[in-house]
Write a structure and sequence with these properties.
By secondary structure, the chain is of the alpha/beta class. The chain has a single domain, classed as Class I glutamine amidotransferase (GATase) domain (Rossmann fold, 3-Layer(aba) Sandwich). It is 30% helix and 25% strand. It is globular, with a radius of gyration of 18 Å. Its EC number is 2.3.1.31. Belongs to the MetA family.
């Protein structure tokens, strides 16, 4: 089944050129099928890039998915054209009376700050509180995962001595868990962050499960037992060149930054990065949409509570 997005959204052409089945809203409206409504709170600075990344994986299932992009009112992006935001994004106030099968809260480059010092923290907490009754399953990514663990479960984050930056090996703790089903025992995933959460804090919350972790990168996938909240501390959605772009950006800023680990062939930034996590990303996003959302969300989404 296709993903339903406006034909004018840049991701439409990107996905179509990648031979991914997309249809515009007009055609989708003529199909007699229950679509999954997924909202995306996009907190990343390069919003169009993040849209393309997420929509690529959300489209890789037999399910028809309708996307609604959300931006914060308390902070306006300076790195995405205002015309794009006005045309394709909604504010929370505009959608807060709707029900959604799924919600994605992206990462954000604010992990060095205290949660309460982030400009849009109050607005984000309102969204996370709203998600308890208006969303069936929420997927939190990187800083979004740390924010969700802190807000919903009082799990703190800790500063790292240096940036966790690169591709790291992870193990599956429960191969029968729905979100990790089908993953190899050991798989790769990207990380790009200055802070971490610790297993000892998560284990104090008896309804949270650590489903995947890494000896080097730490906690990776955490979920509530009912799978209404999923937390992923890395960036499975990243494209082949995303870490390279971040590496160049940080170097140009004059920041002290090491080459992303286990990323370039022969550890040489002049080589093409090795995209070693694409299969794992497809599995995790498909599992979330199928097992955590589609198989359990009410057919009449308006009955969700």
């Amino acid at each position: 089944m296709p993903i339903k997005i406006p034909a004018e959204l840049p991701a439409f052409k990107v996905l179509r050129d990648d031979n991914i089945f997309v249809i515009n809203s007009e055609r989708a409206d003529t199909q007699d099928i229950r679509v999954l409504k997924i909202a995306i709170i996009n907190l990343m600075p390069k919003k169009i890039v993040t849209e393309n990344q997420l929509l690529r994986y959300l489209s890789n299932t037999p399910l028809q998915v309708e996307i609604k992009l959300i931006q914060t009112k308390s902070y306006v992006s300076h790195t995405t054209l205002l015309d794009h935001l006005e045309k394709f994004y909604n504010y929370f106030d505009e959608i807060k009376n709707e029900k959604f099968d799924g919600l994605i809260i992206t990462g954000a480059p604010v992990e060095k700050m205290k949660f309460e010092d982030v400009t849009y923290w109050k607005e984000l907490t309102e969204i996370m509180e709203w998600s308890k009754t208006n969303v069936f399953s929420t997927l939190h990514i990187c800083w979004g995962a740390q924010a969700g663990l802190y807000y919903h479960h009082n799990v703190p984050k800790y500063d790292l001595k240096e940036k966790m930056f690169g591709i790291f090996l992870h193990r599956v703790n429960d191969e029968k868990a729905d979100i990790t089903r089908g993953l190899s025992d050991i798989f790769n995933a990207p990380h790009s962050r200055y802070t971490e959460v610790k297993g000892e804090d998560i284990e104090k919350v008896n309804y949270l499960e650590i489903l995947s972790e890494s000896e080097e990168a730490g906690i990776f996938i955490v979920a509530t037992q009912d799978r209404r909240k999923i937390y992923i501390t890395g960036h499975l959605e990243y494209d082949r060149n995303t870490l390279n772009d971040e590496y160049i950006r940080d170097k140009e800023k004059g920041e002290k930054i090491d080459i992303p680990k286990n990323y370039f062939k022969n550890n040489d930034p002049n080589e093409i990065p090795i995209h070693s996590w694409r299969g794992s990303a497809n599995i995790v996003f498909s599992n979330w949409l199928n097992y955590c959302v589609y198989q359990n969300t009410p057919y009449d989404i308006e009955t969700l509570h």
